[in-house]
Amino acid sequence: MSSDIILKIEKLKVKISGKEILKGIDLEVPRGSIFAIMGPSGSGKSTLLRAINRLWDLYPDVEVEGKILLEGRDVYQMDPHELRKMVGMVFQRPNPFPHMSIFDNVAIGPKMHKMVKSKEELERLVEWSLKRAYLWDEVKDDLKRKAGRLSGGQQQRLCIARAIALKPKVLLMDEPTSALDVVSTKRIEENIVELKKEFTVLIVTHNPQQAARISDYVAFIYDGKVVEVGPTSEIFTRPKHELTEKYVLGKV
Amino acid sequence: MRKVHPGILAIYLLSFLALGLLLWVLGAILVNGLPVVLHYGVQLFTANIPPPVFFFGPPPEVGLAPAIVGTLMIVFIALLISFPIGFLAGVLISEFYYTRLAKAAEHVASLLVEVPTIAAGIAIYWLIVVPTQGFSAIAGSVALSLIMIPYIALYTAEAYRKVPKLIKEGGLALGIPYSKVLFKILRGLVAPGVITGVLIALAKAAGEAAPLLFTAGWSNKVSLDPFQPSASLSVLIYKFGFSSQELWLKLSWAASFILVFMIILPLIIISKLVVRKHEF
Amino acid sequence: MTRIKERRLLALLGIGGVLVLAAIFVVLFPLLANSYTFLLKRGVELVTSMDWSPMMNQFGGLQFILGSLWVTFWSTLLATPLAVSLAVFASDLSPRRLRGLFGGLVDLIAAIPSVVYGYWGLMIFGPLLASTVYPLLQSAFSGVPLLSTLFSTNAITPQCFMTAVLVLALMITPYASAIIRNAYEMTPKDMIEAVYALGGSKWDAIKMTLSYIKSSILAGVIIAAGRALGETMAVTMLIGNSVGPFKPCLLCRGATITSIVVNEFQEAMMNPSHSEALTALIVILIAMGSVLLYLGRKISKNFVEAEIHA
Ligand SMILES: Nc1ncnc2c1ncn2[C@@H]1O[C@H](COP(=O)(O)OP(=O)(O)OP(=O)(O)O)[C@@H](O)[C@H]1O
Ligand SMILES: [Mg+2]
Predict the structure, then answer these.
(1) How many CB pairs under 8 A join A and C?
(2) Which pLDDT belongs to residue C111?
(3) What architecture (CATH level 2) is domain B65-277?
(4) In this prediction, what percent of chain A has a pLDDT beyond 70?
(5) Mutate which of A83, A93, A99 to test chain B, going by most B C-beta atoms within 10 A?
(6) Of A32, B272, C58, C233, which cross-links C114 as Cys (Cβ 3.0–4.6 Å)?
(7) Phi, psi (deg, nearest 5) at residue A232
């Protein structure tokens, strides 16, 4: 069983400027699953994701305590650059490098990590990533276009392509559809289900319906603590906790 | 016709007065300087500065080359000194804003902008000219670099600060080291701001005379040796401006024209174009 | 917890930071080192006496200090209405399409070197004023108490306090205006809309905005005064360079700290006391400028950015 847990979080606490935002989180994410994290705004979902790939390292007023194990290795003992290569991240708002071309946005990661040996290999990888992110058809004729000129939904899919180009083991997605319309949201949801074949996906969402539609497991977070966690079908049909029930029914 | 409030009228009048006077300065440089430049043509840029007519009769060749070359060389060396310092300090101020060193550097840079430039000149006189027992272009460059550093540092800091955190994190989340994110990935984003800072600093430095008077000294001949004294356009304008010789007064106008319209104006125009070209 | 070791990056950037700190010492240390013995021994004479005669070993520099303050006061006074008007004009009254061009023009004008302003004043502006405006001023105020002393002089010359003051006022106007404009454009739009909603006119809106940014205007003016105080080349070329005792007069020739240093430092290199006295005057200049800068930045903290753009 434990070999099927790709990511294990133990007693994770995060303090920002002395204020405890995460108050002891325990989670186990099974390999090859879509694991949804739900919870009201400000409950600490983004904070949790940013602890996993150690983005908090750069902020002097943030303290992280507890353990995060990726494939059994303590991420805080790893080289952060290696860790972040293994753990891709898609942010709450699209953040491509606006001044770079579509191609370069996707290519920059593999190039910097020296993952490819030839130009052809790089081109194949970029194409593969853009196809996985369902962006290829829209941009294949003009890969030199500046990323800043794409629409919000396209930018977000470009960020997905950029993240998966590194072939990460785990993909962290922070409300990837929060800024998008229904059509783009549907596209991206389809992508995510598709992506699970290759990556384990940890996705934050505000939206219970979205969690129900795409995820295998759900954790419900409230005020920096895990209130309830389990298979999606169970959480949505038989919530044990009153708060979860309210949230699932849209009452919180 | 609609009645205009006298207060607004006053604002218009005062603005036009100020603008008119300022344009007058520009116009005077053009009207008095351009004809001299056109009259002497190429030799102005290639020949040495003529000795006083009073003693030696009309000179065979009239040129400003030593001053032009001097200004370019002194300012270029000043850039070599000030760019690395200003750029690194600027990135520090923006990205490690929470360190004491960054805070102190930002504070000092904002003070240095306001230090009278003559003070930099006199300080470098004591620090370099006295121990080395002589004026030198490089002493002038050091004095000018003190003036350029804060501009480059503050513009660089501003350029990096303007990049949203989210974009920097986008790079970090790919496992790219911070230094590569800052110096490689963001290069295209910060370049316009940094280049603007450099160009503004160059424009300021090129026109400064006070820091050069007692550091770079003077030379009537073209000199490319940074350890020798050197003329400069700004010092020439001052020196010759007080003379009673027609020719030297004309050369002061020509030097003003070259300084303002051929060096400073292009720098400012380029800085505007750089910013415009990079807008998304 | 382990943190990313961005040590090497921080060390590299730190070199730049340390060297910026060093820069201020590079300015201050040589000045202090070469003036403190003089200041200790003869500082009192320097700031209280007006007998300046390096050959006779007399170093009374009060007239230069007063000259600097006098020039700064008048040029700031004259620049203020110009700068405020220009700021309002640029951000509120000028045609929208011309604003870009206008901004570029002001940038260029702000970049004209001091020595070029000086030369223009010396060759064109000063002589013109001396042959037209100054005689008029003198006769207009000749009977008026107090004001007559401002304009009384034996001989009108193109180079005098007034010429320096006027050119200096012109030079600091774009600069003060940039700071004021920065504050003007940051005024909340809803406040202005409220003025219009109450039936106010454009003029009421401008008055409201100006009163809202009063402190920024004051700060901008004080910082501009600091620049006038340290301004060197134009003043040296226009002030007339008389080392005699200071008189509160605008049409008289005079000297400032910066002008006396430019004029005498070359010859002072032969005479240690002389060069130390001039260095001490520079130290005093920096001290006076620091007071202005401190006041200006204390009143309004937000425009270091505008300062570097000006
Ligand atoms: N950089 C920061 N500085 C200070 N407080 C922060 C910072 N980042 C997050 N917080 C605080 O931490 C708490 C959790 O924030 P977080 O962004 O993790 O919430 P979230 O669950 O992702 O909410 P949302 O659904 O709105 O994105 C909030 O109270 C927030 O104010
Ligand atoms: Mg969030």
Answers:
(1) 12
(2) 84
(3) Orthogonal Bundle (1.10)
(4) 97
(5) A99
(6) C233
(7) -55, -45
